[in-house]
Amino acid sequence: DSFDIVGDGVKELLVGRDDGMLEIYNFESADDPGLRYDHALSESIASIQGGCVGKDGYDEILASTYSGWLTGLTTEPVHREGGSGEELKLSQEMQSKISSLRNELEHLQMKVLQEREKYQQSSQSSTAVSSVPVFSVNDKFTLNKDDASYSLILEVQTAIDNVLVQSDVPIDLLDVDKNSAVVSFSSCDSE
């Protein structure tokens, strides 16, 4: 997307990447855009948009991720400083918002407990049937021309416990910064 998030009258380029990087580029010089800000999310970004969403006068960037999470970055200051020895007082609007969020959280916790109880009762009945949940996998296998390697990216809307890679030819697994996996090698029986 392109949006004037800085407020200088020139639109910036908002980029959401499939590796989870959210980047803002500006066009101060006529040659190349310059990276002004970046933020790393934990999953690929499916969509990005700039606009005024939450509070009038404060522009925001909204990004939706592969699993459906919506992340917002705002220009509204989030920190307030009090004077020396002076306690920070919350406005009535902020107190009501906090109270509303606490009530919503308690309601959701009660709902989760009820659903867990329903699940426990249904799973212990004699007519219960077990099934593997259906979920979609977002996968990419791309060639990196710089170092002649392939990058395998897997995203699932649930935790990934194991990934098995089997190859007919010898392969080297390279570690990357974003990788949180523990790699284990085992030789394969040729027959």
Descriptive account of the structure:
This protein is α+β, with helices and mostly antiparallel strands and 191 residues long. It has a domain at 2-74. 17% of the residues lie in helices and 31% in strands. It has one helix and nine strands; from the N terminus they run βββββββαββ. It has one helix spanning 92-124, and strands at 2-3, 12-16, 21-26, 34-40, 45-55, 58-65, 70-74, 137-144, 149-156. The protein has a four-stranded antiparallel sheet with strand order 1-2-3-4, with no helix packed on it. Strands 5-6-7 form a three-stranded antiparallel sheet, with no helix packed on it. A two-stranded antiparallel ribbon has the order 8-9. The chain is flat. The model has no long low-confidence stretch (mean pLDDT 82). This is BBS7 protein. Pfam families: BBS7_GAE, Beta-prop_BBS7.
Number of helical elements: 1
- Could you tell me the mean pLDDT? 82
How is the main sheet built?
Answer: 4 strands, antiparallel
Number of E strands: 9
Key phrases:
single chain, about 190 residues, alpha+beta, 3-stranded antiparallel β-sheet, 1 helix, Beta-prop_BBS7, coiled coil, BBS7_GAE_dom
